[in-house]
Amino acid sequence: MIHDPMIFEDGPQRSNYGLSSCASSNGCFTKVAQDGSANLPTADSGWVGESSLDLYMVSVICLNCSITLVEADCSEVAERVAV
After folding, report:
1. What is d(CA 34, CA 81) in angstroms, rounded to the nearest whole number?
2. pTM of the model as a whole
3. Can you tell me the distance from the alpha carbon of 53 to that of 47, in angstroms, rounded to the nearest whole number?
4. Pairwise CA distance, residues 20 & 40, whole Å
5. Which residues does residue 68 pair with via DSSP β-bridges, in sequence order?
6. Within 1-83, where are the H helices?
7. Residue 71: which of 30, 41, 28, 26 has the closest Cα?
8. pLDDT score at 48
9. What's the CA angle centered on 64, arms 51 and 48, to 5 degrees?
């Protein structure tokens, strides 16, 4: 339940530094539910700041990478951490 419909769309950090856009529209960025489907969880702003920061950092570290955000159904840390 950490879905933010606008997360990382047209990331401003990239354009601020003259980098090309990384967005869903150009195939650079994709969002999927934890089961791999397009059925994203209900919007929840609880983790948006952390998720946004992580996405922006990945996008500037690896300029030619395609980024896939997997959105969890639950916001509990213990349930989201892979062991």
Report:
1. 12
2. 0.72
3. 10
4. 27
5. 30
6. 12-16, 48-61, 77-80
7. 41
8. 72
9. 10
The answer to whether the beta carbons of residues 68 and 55 sit under 8 Å apart is no
Mean pLDDT by 10 residues, the chain (83 residues): 62 73 85 87 73 82 88 68 54
**Beta-strand runs (E) in 4-81:** 29-33, 67-71
pLDDT of residue 83: 46
Strands (E), 1-83: 29-33, 67-71
- Residue 71: how many other CB atoms lie within 10 Å: 19
In this structure, which amino acid lies at residue 66?
S
